[in-house]
């Protein structure tokens, strides 16, 4: 008896595949052809689900395909090759493959099995065939992937199935490195020494600026700030703060001594003026008495009771008192001028001291800005030298680690995440390699930079993950650790 096998649909697009299986000896070729058609039918039904399965390659633009189409001519008992449809084809930018006779067929987003099934079904409809031709699709050349950043030869490379991030870096001739090891090591040592010198100089300038700001404000103590005290190089900080504190005390004491000396002069002039004022009052009283005596003598002379020489003596005595009073008034004016000059000297001394502090503070801020710019330049040079040392020396491995990021486009959207060395790379991916400097904690041990958790997640089946070998940061982090220039 004949056996009947029915396949129920697994989706709306699937069709029921039904055939009658005759005696196995009579039509073996027919059974194989129908079974192959059922396999293609099920592959097309699960195309969407296959997109998320690991290891399933989905076609895309720039893929080069080798396509062969055959059908079985039962009357002649031989296979017929559709020569016009056989050959190599390229997936266009719109994701389609343009083939003779049947036109454009959607290829992007599906597998080679999906495309083969679509070709057979379409050809059957166009040519009005009784049976669906068998098509085979193979990827002759995969579309490329891209690698940029700190590698020897960034650019576009042909994809190979199962490609990992580490293999992609190897394809680009490895991490960026120099050609002269001794020169690179010398540059790295020089740059590190320059960074240390700049750091020490910056500490000194920051301590000086704190001292000048205290002098400008007229404070009794210097506020060096927590940032300066927490700076790297504790010995530098203590030496700089101790020196500026000593200079601050010395300058403040010298200023106070000068002001005290002038204030003593002011007190002396004030005492002199007080004495002259008392003397002036005494002379006023003497002049008043002399004037009274002169009036009395004038009355006696007019009555003939005394002689004229006595009147002359009284007049001379009164003139002498008035002359002395004038001398006292002149001395008081001179003392007042000296007092005013001394008070002005105090004001000028304080103003000159503050003006000098303001000028030095402005120069110090400008030098600090120059130091910061030199530091940024030296850091870039150091990072570049250390990154090149990765390929020629083990000295830089404690200071620089590699970080890998993968950018993958799915439709109109693209996502970027940090990946490990064994993460799988897909065609069209952009692999970015950066070199990140490790930071040192207060104990002097190097530690990997810490950053917030990456919010974006890689697509399913990408094989990406966070590496355990380098302090990794998300690609969209606003603040990155010092990196070498991407080449």
Describe the protein.
The protein is of the alpha+beta class. The chain is 49% helix and 17% strand. The chain is built from 8 helices and 15 strands. The strands form 5 sheets. A 5-stranded mixed sheet has the order 10-9-13-11-12. Strand 3 (64-73) and strand 4 form a beta hairpin. Helix 5 (181-217) packs parallel to helix 7 (234-303). The longest helix has 82 residues, at 308-389. It is rod-shaped, with a radius of gyration of 50 Å. The two termini are 73 Å apart.
Q: What key phrases describe this protein's structure?
A:
487 residues; alpha+beta; 5-stranded mixed beta sheet; 8 helices; 15 strands; 49% helix
State the helix count.
8
| First-residue to last-residue Cα separation | 73 Å
Question: Which structural class matches the secondary elements?
Answer: alpha+beta
Mean pLDDT over all positions: 75
Low-pLDDT parts are 1-52, 391-398, 440-457, 461-487
Report the sheet-strand fraction. Answer: 15-25%
Strand order of the largest sheet: 10-9-13-11-12
Main sheet?
Answer: 5 strands, mixed
Helical fraction equals 40-55%
**Rounded to an integer, what's the Rg over CA atoms?**
50 Å
Silhouette: rod-shaped
Number of strands: 15
Which H/E pattern describes the elements?
EEHHEEEEEHEEEHHHHHEEEEE
